[in-house]
Amino acid sequence: MYSCKEIAELISQSMDHQLTLRQKIGFYLHLSMCTFCVRHKKQMDFLKQLLDLNKKQPDVIHRSMTLSRTKKEEIKKCLRDHTHS
Ligand SMILES: [Zn+2]
Question: Per the structure, how many domains does the chain have?
């Protein structure tokens, strides 16, 4: 049985190459019981999608990155104001 740490390694491994059948079985067995790893896998899948999209449409990513940076500044400002008051 895999530990959460090993699952995290398998997730990053699976980005670059196919897992063996044995690894896949252990992987999905763990995922069926562990919500933490399911969440982690979802995040990694999302990142992978972003990377794939970046290859196909760099402009889209660039625009969304710029947007999120502005959002981050807004959040930072909010936090600053909040701590001051
Ligand atoms: Zn886990």
Answer: 1
